[in-house]
Amino acid sequence: MARNVEELLTLQPVVMKQLQTIINKNRLAHAYIFDGEKGTGKVDIMQYFVKLMLCENPNQNVPCETCRNCRRVDSGNHPNIHQIYPDGQFIKIDQIRELVAEMKMMGIEEGRKIYVLHHADRLNIASANMLLKFLEEPDGDVMAILLTEQMQSMLPTIRSRCQHIKFQKIPHSILLQHLQENNVSYAMASTVSMLTNELETAIFLANDEQFAQARKTVLKLVEAIRKNVHEAMLVVHEEWLPLFKEKSEMEQALDLLLFAYRDIVAIKANPEAACTYPDMLLTFKEAALHSTYERLSSQMQAILQARVSLQRNMNRTLMMEQLMLNLQEGYTFV
């Protein structure tokens, strides 16, 4: 369901202000790139922007939602709006050729014609060059909106002819709120929101049994490390290595382990700090009391080093054993 204007203002206040100013001052460019990660509201804000441009009765930067144009934008039936999606892996030259032909035809209706390219970074060389020619010589009152998650993959010549609208990541507090509204516990929401900024991916992770097991195993290892090296090695061999068989799984597990130590540092600095693992608060407070910033910093460096070793395809058993020895140092005397 599309977000309302209030939600969009909370989600992307800077972008919304930019677009409202553009319309207020009638400074519309002929081409825009909406650039931001998945889930940052690009499609909803594009819809709002288009609607506001075409609305017959806008009021204080809000489309009326009831006029003929607003209703047709919502239903996807406005004759002056054309949306292009990748056909398979790419947006192909035939799609751009057809689009250009449509844009050059006399419109069924008066007024601005708008075309939207979804995943514009997936233009191939031929389609990108044809689009570039049309961007350089638009025919009549035509506007382009290019949506992308990877602007750096687009031709520099296309980027230079568009006004860049940068979408920020979803504010952490809003992502947490949305997750809890989707029946995700606060503890799990706090963890998955550290791994992704995209709501759908976060909800998937939060409901994934394998991820729940990964989280549990990582926290079990943190506690074992605090006891002694033998306990830690036991958890590594009996639970960690059998569970994290794929490289990507091991990488995520090391990230989760790093977040645990980052929590301990944050709690040491501020006992009320927001955590990746709020359900471990009491345990981590105790760990913070019995460690120094220097030691915690060394432990985090050791985990980062393990991540580098993983990328270099070091033997994983050996890598984890070495990591346990590095993490264990300093706990012996506390």
Describe the structure.
This protein is an alpha/beta fold and 334 residues long. The chain has 2 domains: 5-168, 3-Layer(aba) Sandwich (Rossmann fold); 208-328, Zinc Finger, Delta Prime, domain 3. It is built from 16 helices and 5 strands. The chain has helices at 5-11, 13-24, 42-54, 68-75, 93-104, 125-136, 156-159, 172-181, 186-195, 199-206, 209-227, 229-243, 247-269, 281-289, 293-311, 316-328; strands at 31-35, 81-84, 113-117, 142-148, 163-166. A 5-stranded parallel β-sheet has the order 2-3-4-1-5, sandwiched between helices. Helix 8 crosses helix 9, helix 12 runs antiparallel to helix 16 and helix 13 (247-269) packs across helix 14 (281-289). The longest helix has 23 residues, at 247-269. The termini are far apart. The model is unreliable at 330-334 (pLDDT under 50). Keywords: DNA replication, DNA-directed DNA polymerase, Nucleotidyltransferase, Transferase. Its EC number is 2.7.7.7. It catalyses: DNA(n) + a 2'-deoxyribonucleoside 5'-triphosphate = DNA(n+1) + diphosphate. InterPro entries: DNA_pol_HolB, DNA_pol_III_delta_C, DNA_Rep/Repair_Clamp_Loader, P-loop_NTPase. It comes from Lysinibacillus contaminans.
